[in-house]
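Note to self: keep these together.
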Amino acid sequence: MNEQIQKLAELAGFNLHNDLIDGHNFHHEIEKFAQLIVHEMLKTCEEHPGWYGRDIGEQIKQRFGVEE
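Structure:
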């Protein structure tokens, strides 16, 4: 799991070392959810009329370790 996503999940109250519900570990689902949010943010940046939106989008990708 990306370090930034892990930090945010822990801030949201997830105990990533012990979060088992009915024997299921939700690390993958948490990471996928975060990546979907990041992808939506990237779409917003890419639709920005100036080049700054794309530059910001690249920084978001790097920070959250998300590929297109």
